[in-house]
Amino acid sequence: MYTKRLKALLTPPEQAIFKKLSTPQKIQDYLDKLPINFELSGETCMSPRVVIRAKTAHCIEGAFLAAAALAYHGHEPLLMDFQTLPDDEDHVITLFKQNGRWGAISKTNHAILRYRDPVYLTPRELALSHFHEYLMWDGRKSLRAYSAPFDLRRFPPEKWVTPEKSLVWLADALDDAKHLPLVPKKNQRLLRKAAAVELRAMKIVEWKPPKKFWERG
Fold this sequence. Notes:
217 residues, alpha+beta, C8orf32 fold, seven-stranded antiparallel β-sheet, 7 strands, 16% strand, globular
């Protein structure tokens, strides 16, 4: 059984943390308390074990941890990847289902692309709820595709829950997975740019970058 195999990998302190993360809502609360990972020493793709130790995470690292917590409690560890215009960045969320409705756990530093309550009938409906939030600084709406639910149980838990090495291979696998278009080609030219007030809202962040972040370049 996948859950039993996962639990056998965890240390007692890790077990204590995962035991408390018994619902998607509690998992989101835990992720919200972790400072955002600004990758000051270079790009990272940390496993849940390393995230717990480092006490920081960015979006895909938070998604991995959330998926591991769901798997620990016997739920499906499902991810969804958002693909954008080439000038923008992708985002990864963790899916869950409660009482027949889909929701999502999300680690982000912004006031947008956050947690979704379980009110959506389908994964596509949930993905569409992100469309008008996915903006670029010039006002373009950049979200173009979403992945079908990506089940991490296709990989043994020791490959993605507890490794010390980077999980960039898993990020690549998710990026290469089947994605479904959100915007019909004929309608792409009809998309209206975001209003100035929407762009101002994008500047709201939960964790301010340290001085070193601006000095890297």
